[in-house]
UniProtKB/TrEMBL annotation:
Residues 378-393 have a biased composition (Polar residues). Its EC number is 3.6.4.13. The keyword Hydrolase applies. Residues 264-339 form the S1 motif domain. GO terms for cellular component: catalytic step 2 spliceosome. Residues 593-756 form the Helicase ATP-binding domain. This is RNA helicase. Residues 1-22, 123-178, 194-257, 340-416, 550-569 are annotated as: Disordered. PANTHER family: ATP-DEPENDENT RNA HELICASE (PTHR18934), ATP-DEPENDENT RNA HELICASE DHX8 (PTHR18934:SF85). It comes from Perkinsus olseni (Perkinsus atlanticus). One of its GO terms (molecular function) is RNA helicase activity.
Amino acid sequence: MAPPVAAEVDGPVGTADARAKSGAQSVRSVVERILYLNARKHVRQTMENHWDINDPDVADMVVHLARESRKEEKESPKKGDAVDTFCEKLESVGAETSRNTADILMGIVARIDGIIDRLAPSKSPRAAGVRKRANSSDNKDSAFPGLSIHNETTKDRPELKLDRPEERDGVAPLSATAEHLILEEMPYRERVKYEREKKRREHERSMDRKLEDYHRRDRRRSRTRSRSRSRDRRRRHDRSRSRSRDKRRGDSKRSSDLQPLELYTIHRGTVQRVMEYGCFVAFRTQEGEKEGLVHVGEILPASSAGRSRMSASDLVKRNQSVYVKIVGLAGTKISLSMREADQKTGEDLRPRNASSSKSIRPGDSAYHGANSIPIGGATTNAAARSGRGSQTGIRLDLDQGAGSSSSSSSGRQAKQHLNDYELWEARQLRASGVLDASDMPDFDPRNREETKEEVELEVADAEPKFLAGQTAKTGVILSPVRIVKEPDGSLQRAAIQQSTLAQERRESKQAMQEQVIKAIPKDMSRPWEDPNPNQGERTLAQNLRSITMSSTAQNQNRKHGAPTGVSYGQRSALPMREQRESLPIFKLRSQLLQAMAENQVLIVIGETGSGKTTQMTQYMAEAGYADQGIIGCTQPRRVAAITVAKRVAEEYGCRLGQEVGYTIRFEDHTSPETRIKYMTDGMLLREALADPLLKKYSVIMLDEAHERTIHTDVLFGLCKEAIRQRNDLKLIVTSATLDAEKFSRYFFDSHIFTIPGRTFPVEILYSNEPEEDYVQAALMTVMQIHLTEQPGDILVFLTGQEEIDTACQLLDERMAQLAPMNPPPLIPMGVYAAQPSEVQSSIFEPAPAGSRKCVVATNIAEASITIDGIYFVVDPGFAKIKTFNAKTQMDALIVTPISQANARQRAGRAGRTGPGKCYRLYTEKAFRTEMLPSAVPEIQRSNLSNVVLTLKAMGINDLLGFDFMDAPPVQTLINSLEALWQLGALDDEGLLTKLGRKMAEFPMPPEQSKMLLASVDLGCADEAITVVAMLSVQNVFYRPRDKQAVADQKKSKFNSPEGDHVTLLEVYKAWSRNRFSAPWCYENFIQVRSLRKAQDVRKQLIGIMDRYRLEINSCGQDYNRLRQAIAAGYFNNLCRRDPNEGYRVMRDLQQVYIHPSSALYQKNPEWVIYYELVMTTREYIREVCTVEPEWMPKIAPNMFKQADSRGISRMKASEKIEPLYSKYVTNPSQNIDGLTRNHESLLRYHDRDALRTLARRKC
């Protein structure tokens, strides 16, 4: 291509003197001039890359022509006009372009336009990259420019494009290593079945290839029949000779690459499994793939130091590429040795025959795992050689001086951290000659030196540049969204008082349990009172106690009246067709399809149980919408997506996963034949990340939109934009409440279609006076209904598991007290999320004749499930919701009053079967004045870091300009951006980094994504995947009420000094060693359902890591690396031990406490990082892990820095100095506080003079 000639045009073109003169006469500011020069610099770089031209005059001309083209496009907006105009202008100034060059110019113009949009100055006074909206009345753009950065597309930033492997039938193939890791997660029978099925598929593909080759040769022969015989004979001779030559060449090549299966031959292989006694290595020979055992004594040479003290996991890692030598053959068993083969060159270090002297070259085609690593486990890329990880840029030298671990601390005592007071005391005693250096508690006898002093950390008060002056660090305080209408009302007072009442009930229950314990014989109760009993004594006492509680815990009323059969949902004896036709929506089928055809967006209002979720998708498929694309239906809950998909597949007459399937996080049951797809709203949001226009869908149905989850609200805006660009896309929004007008106004004043439900009149009864204890009021109302009202089941709404369990227990006790009066049986049934599915399904069973069922449920029974037979509803008016405090960066579950819409929804549950009654345990005035009209959307009360990261990955940087139905609080958005910047997902300009783009691909919070990517750099991805999978499930351990001590003893076997994360890892490893046994879980009080779910999550994470070619290595027992990876993701949750009590969060100095269920409870490590913080009676931190303070400035430089030794840190300034002695204390033992006890421990083994000195100082 000929370079364009600089022409005389208006603007910054011409000679350098002319440009200087023009710049001097211009009214541009200094900032605008700098931005323009920066833009020209990027344009010159782009021109040099694509045109091989580096001329500033030509760059000025290109900028000017591009601006003119964009200006003309705004005057006549048509798709592609700017690019065509730009090409024409380039040709008019002498650019000779061919047709192929024109295609390249399209991409160049796109990149130049993106550069100009971000960097070039404009005529309007605004910050670079900030889009000014037309609505000048809204001043948020100017006040918060970090929230209104210009949007971008993937073409603007090609460096963020991730390499994805090619997919076959919509599924990315797994590498050999990933497939091996997933096979290890399968039980033996499933693994054999999988390998058999894999061989069958490979055989079928081989037969297909052979058949295709046969037909190809047959066609070739038919074409050559007309040729002469001599020529044909010569050709056959040449072909035969060529085949022989090729065969000889192939045989010689294979024989040179692969060694035969003989003694003393050297092969290259990959470590498959690491055991305590050695490792198994897979390798290839001329006879095929083999596997042998390398004993731990055959890994290192005999002269290696410390060889006898090392285990196999310290020497090799899984998926590591090694050279092995066959030293023994006994049938199918192969003994291998690594110490007789050079691990760098493959040469034989101890030749025993001629063949073994051949060395394997590193380039030979031996067995290579997809993620194989060299011996020692060190990565060889440039990033690793520079000391930083290739994925996150994390420092790889963190383990230097990191303290002791289970693998590196042999022969060395653990470091003991001392605070300033203890160090001063120890130094004074040492200076006076009382203590020797070897007597100091932090002395290392191996290195003959003292451990370094404690590292003092400070929180770096650095702000990202794009949020300068907008965060709370500069004094910006914004009011949060109010989730309570009347903070001083009777409902809010009752909600606050309920926590105190719940504490009193717990204390009363504990007192009753202690009385039962005291009733045990003295010799058995003594271990129970002993805080540190001998192992087994407390367990024996607990077992005796559980024997005495055999049948008294459950009264005869409940035991004889409870349903005996267990079924998953309510079953009907009617045929499937009659069941579908009995639903209210069936009568409106034709009208509904007509409304869908006439409207691109349709709002459907229907009561729960009307059939809109299960029938509408089938109606659309029968009408032909599935022929144009998939019919997608979102659900706010995973359980709902699974159960609805199973029901629709049953009605549709297909196997689940074929024509009807579902997708939830870490689980995909779809296929290329899927026509109807149910999924969680979060999964559709992740699909929009790769395809914003959702091109593979013909219909999108947003079900249960009234719940207003975070993902549903974001999907509102994305689907609204997709509809603007796709005329063939249909959008259906369904809701169970009557707030359709708001949805209609948001979606272009769309049509509303109402499905009348099978409802009966419901009588509403209000309380005359406000109730202080709504739990007791609800139980009294239930007893009144049961004893005075007509037959019919009762539905009670409470806030959580603790209240539900307490209510069921109290109902049992009260019915037992009324047993002499012979009342009709009452069957209390609790429903909450943590229950097993078979227990939840029992609520659908009808009550036995002559008895009444009382279902005590959370707000899940408002709209998500339908229970027939309910005639009475007891509504205290409260629900437990999750809220995010932007100031403390903490999620909390708090009890708040419900909205008026929720109250109407609860009352409607009583009119499903017949006329019913709703008992509202609050006044009518409170309903009208203290309840919000509708619930506060989740997007206004939750942490939005994950949502913001997803929007950034889609190129949506203007968060204020995004079309939310209800905009989230500005404070929450700013905190989310700041947290992402600290994690490294955003740069100083507020744009997504390559690390942030990778983090967006993981369906999990950004902290866990960063943890996984850091584990790749640190070589512990295998363990980190397991930890993340275990954290994704809840309630791994369970404590039966009558066997709590036994369960605690079983759990203590897995406790790790590194913390709860490693404890969960050890649990999963133990389960794997026991072949994923369910009886083993029952024996150790571990929920097998949780472990199986964690196993499924682990498989999915392995697939995601393999899809983006991330190495999955194991760190063995070196848990320092794992702890560093955890700290890389959760450094924001760093805590330090408070000298008085508990811990202080470094971020805001909030006082927290380790949860009693933690493995570190009462261990009191100096520095910890927690996974979550919960508020009950105290602020408890759960899933706690120990860390070293010297890691933090390297892991999180934007968050922490080492404190200045010349000053005092904020943490030290907040500490209180308490007196060692006070004459006002009546108990003399209280004068010796914890600090003095530590001093006394320093002198435990020293002379009496030092003890006398300490005693005199106390007095």
